[in-house]
Amino acid sequence: MAKIIPQATILEKYFVTSTLPTQWCPGCGAGGIGHAVLQAIERMQLDPKKVVLVSGIGCNGHFTRHLRLDDLHVLHGRAPAVATGLKMARPDLEIIVIQGDGDAASIGGNHLIHAARRNIGITTIVSNNYIYGRTGGQYSPTTPKKSISTSSPFGLEDPPFELCNLMVGAGATFVARGTSYHIIQLIDLVERAIKHPGFAFLEVIAPCPTSYGRKNPETGITGPQMLQWQKENSVSIKKAAHMSEESLRGKIVTGILLDRIEPEYSAAYAKVRQRAQKGGLA
Amino acid sequence: MTEISIQRKWCKSCGICVEFCPKKVFTVGELNEPIISTPDACTGCRLCELRCPEFAVIITEVEERSHE
Ligand code: SF4
Ligand code: SF4
Ligand code: SF4
Question: Which ipTM value was assigned to this complex?
């Protein structure tokens, strides 16, 4: 097991501690993703000046405001588009996008699929807590069927997106899933995603006790209960390979689901630029 | 040996550290706040640090525990 960096070190190096406490509700999953991102950055010894976080609108996007790292807090859903632009201008940067499911899959769904299609070398981490937390608990495109939310008080009939499958279909070259409970694995997944040269997508199943848990007690009401539910309902990709579709229903399959190498977009486009600069049409 | 501290101004008493410490070091206080009850049982695994959503738990490796 790789070393866990002491929290005191992380706080001193990365946080503006005067901005704490966070705005999050007790037991929220946003903080766990924050831990995983910072642990991975520190473990990889990335130059903090070469790391840019691009955060979406929503509870999860608020993590970056507590940090000393550069960040762009951009229009709702547009984080992958802004990150794409930044990577094209500054391919030397490590760009990490942090979004929630509403931001990434609904309002910014279009930006997400096209960033994946281009295989632009950014890391996109989507906290999937099954709900629009910040706007008051409306269902999102990943809310499970039958869920109760403020916009589906009698139960939801929309089938949810399976985000990782969507990303595979859209052309992402690295696709992984983790949970807040499996925090050690999550750090490894973030590290692998950052190291991946093309578009890396990481879905994190995360608790939103306030807007989802309270209304849908079967997956836990409080933070600890929701983490316990994740613990009991997760299956590693290795184990899942030997399980039937039936027995996998309702399970969270964790680990690296796809990892392949294709030309990275900003590098490929640099060659187009070179050709154009030589003049004439090739 | 370890020393455990909780930043009380950041902690929101969510109970995650209490629930998932493998050594059951924490108990719940009157206001639902985590109480460091059996610090000597701590193995320094740092899972509480990593799972605390508020970055409020700090584990420090020490040579020998200072006597309070
Ligand atoms: S509403 Fe949900 S996602 Fe937002 S801070 Fe509260 S628990 Fe976290
Ligand atoms: S996990 Fe953190 S916020 Fe939750 S009770 Fe423990 S110290 Fe407080
Ligand atoms: S470091 Fe591990 S053993 Fe010690 S209090 Fe935290 S979770 Fe418990």
Answer: 0.94
